[in-house]
Amino acid sequence: MDIKTLKVNLLKFQSIIALLIMVIILSLLTDRFLTTENSWNIMRQISVNLIVSVGMTLVILTAGIDLSVGSVLALCGAITAGLLKFGAGFADANIYIGFTLFGAITGGILAGSLLGWFNGLVITRFRVPPFVATLAMLTIARGLTMLWTGGFPITGFEGNMAFIGTGWLLGIPMPVWIAAAVVAGAVVLTKKKPLGRHIYAVGGNEKAAALSGLNVRRIKIIVYTIAGALAAVGGIIVTSRLDSAQPNAGMGLELDSIAAVVIGGTSLSGGKGSIMGTVQGALIIGVLNNGLVLLNVSPFWQQVVKGVVILLAVVIEKFNSRSE
Amino acid sequence: MLKKLPVILIFTSLLVAGFSGCGRSSGPEKGQMAVVISTLNNPWFVVLGESAAAKARELGYSAVIYDSQNNSAREAEHFDNIIAMGYDAILFNPTDADGSVLNVSRAKEAGIPTFCMDREINSRDAAVTQLLSDNFTGCVKLGQYFVQEMNKQGTYVEILGLVGDNNTWNRSRGFHSVVDEFPGFRMVAQQSADFDRNRAMEVMESMLQANPDIDAVFAGNDAMALGAYQAILAAGKTDQIKVFGFDGSDDALNSIAAGRLTATVMQFPVMMAEMSAVLADEYINGRTDFDSRTPVEVVLVTSDNVSEFLD
Fold first, then answer.
1. Cβ count near A10 (within 10 Å)
2. Which pLDDT score is estimated for B27?
3. Which residues contact B7 (CB under 8 A, 6 or more apart)?
């Protein structure tokens, strides 16, 4: 293997290498980092961002963006919480519907899918740029969350709701199971299914994709719907972990999510990237967040460090794509 | 031109709707008050805004609530509109101690008095008066109870709110002004969770990894205290670690009654908001002797007195 191929190979595994370096440095600095307990801790903490980021990856692969994920997460978490705790009532018609846990979760995910579908519809039918359409949805969904909750948290659930966020199954935390299932599904979708190839094709060159007979509108609507549904799943997990649906949950989550996707090497101009890259990106952010707190780094510095890491990742990615 | 017709129609209808909305507010009332709130994304401020507006209406004024969405620029726009529409008074919860001063001065120049609620602005004469919860004193009381509860010794962690916010540091300083006097206490970590419940849970999870043997947590508001409690619960350490908060939110009061949180400091947003409307009414009716600050009482809530605050 000559030096050039070695270099290419090194660049290919940039995220994993970066992750390894961080893990080594952190475990040298504190013996509390590389413990089984803390590892599960990190995995559980990144689960929500990872689930949301899988949807974000699919959207970004089509050269789109979804800024509304944080608000959709809050709204769907609140809808599930509200349905579970209070049910749905129509005082005028004297109708009251109580919800089981399964029913409430289905309601939340359906709401997320609907909002995502609406994003896709606005983007494809009315040709609104994704940045603007989902920026509008960011505000709309946050407003709907306030209307639904009246601005107050919905707290305290009976039964198995807590299990989703805090339970363990076969020695692995539930959020990690859910994230793993979402990632596995998305990997199969992008690698094995025709729809996955079509998503890359749309992002790579939309005109060519349309000319070769792909239904570009349909593909885009599907990815935004998936992104909305996954944001809802994230919202349900957050609600369960806190035993409370917070009206201001998920603020700024779109940035964490885009950061995970970009650090994972997915190109913001579409058509290039992978789900596994996003897993690495989410891990890097999670390890960084955890490590900085373990080391008791000042909150002022933490923000600077995180920004520098994102910047480095993107610079390396650009360098990488130029050398190919 | 024809293509644009629908757009123009929508715009006109919006404008008409907007004007008719304003038209409704001018009636036989004594005048109109504007309630400008830093953010309605937080239940605490929702209560503050709605109580101020309700009291103003009760006193015979019309009242409109403006949401600045934690954005000083949006706040400035609200003040532009309020000055243009000639309101009689502004009940104001500022977004920023420095950034909001200019807005208040502009209103003053236009002859509209401003009454600041809960968050202060760094000016002594721009507003008629500032109604402030004494965050520092509240946390002094909390710190004293902390010392007593912990028998003057132990290791603890602190969870700060937004590190750019005045109240964050007033609370932290008040607490430390008492606790740091006792050499038996050791703060092993101080981290920020932005007043957010979820972030506090995650920060607490990580801090518990680094410091599994701590005895207490002091959080800068109740949302963070409750988030930290969830992390402690998941780690099975609720018997070992005492949790202290600030605000007196309903969730926190219920948690104190249930023995989950140890103590919080109750603020009285309703009282503060109503008092601002009353003072504004007095100002409009000719009262002039206002202090630049009007302190609003805060009360320590523990398992001993929590029942007084539960409905």
1. 11
2. 46
3. none
From chain B, the residues in CB contact with A152 under 8 A are 43, 46, 250
**Cβ separation B230–A243 shorter than 8 A:** yes
**d(CA A105, nearest CA chain B) in Å:** 20
Q: Taking each helix axis as running N to C, give the angle between helix A69-86 and helix A101-125, from 0 to 180 degrees, rounded to the nearest 10.
A: 150
To the nearest whole Å, the CA of A272 is away from the closest chain B CA by: 32
Q: Rounded CA gap, B110 and A49, in Å? A: 48
Task: Answer whether residue B17 shows pLDDT above 50.
Answer: no
Q: What is the mean pLDDT of residues B201-220?
A: 93
The angle at the Cα of B36, spanning B30 to B40, to the nearest 5 degrees, equals 130
Helix (H) or strand (E) holding B218: strand B216-219
Would the CB atoms of B226 and A244 count as touching at under 8 Å? yes
Label residue A12 by pLDDT band (50, 70, 90): low
* Mutation target vs A (from B7, B41, B211, B261; most A CBs, 10 A cutoff): B41
Strand B185-192 versus strand B154-160 pairing type = parallel
Average pLDDT for A253-258:
89
CA distances from A249 to A153, A272, B199, B222 (A): 10, 31, 9, 15
pLDDT of residue A27: 85
- In this complex, do B46 and A152 lie within 8 Å of one another by their Cβ atoms? yes
**Averaging pLDDT over each range in A1-5, A309-313, B55-59, B166-170, which range is the top one?**
B55-59
Higher pLDDT, A228 or B72: A228
Domains of chain A in sequence order: 45-323 (1.10.3470)
Average pLDDT of the segment spanning B114-135: 87
- The rounded distance, in Å, linking the Cα atoms of B152 and B270 is 35
B294/B275 Cα distance (integer angstroms): 10
Look at residues A267, A277, A280, A318 and name the one whose alpha carbon lies nearest to residue A61: A267
Collect all residues of chain B within an 8 Å Cβ-Cβ radius of residue A242.
197-198, 201, 226-227, 230
> Is the distance from CB of B231 to CB of B243 less than 8 angstroms?
no
Shortest CA distance from B212: residue in chain A: A32
Cβ atoms of B249 and B267 within 8 Å: the answer is no
Residue B242 CB partners (closer than 8 Å, separation 6+): B149, B150, B215, B216, B217, B262
Instruction: Say if A244 is an interface residue toward chain B (CB within 8 Å).
Output: yes
Task: Quote the pLDDT of residue B6.
Answer: 52
Report the distance separating Cα A279 and Cα A234, nearest Å. 15
C-alpha gyration radius of chain A: 20
Interchain CB distance below 8 Å, A151 and B46 = yes
Q: Both tokens of residue A85?
A: 């705790």
Q: Which backbone phi and psi does B112 adopt, to 5 degrees? A: -110, 120
Quickly state the pLDDT bin for A91 (edges 50, 70, 90).
Answer: low
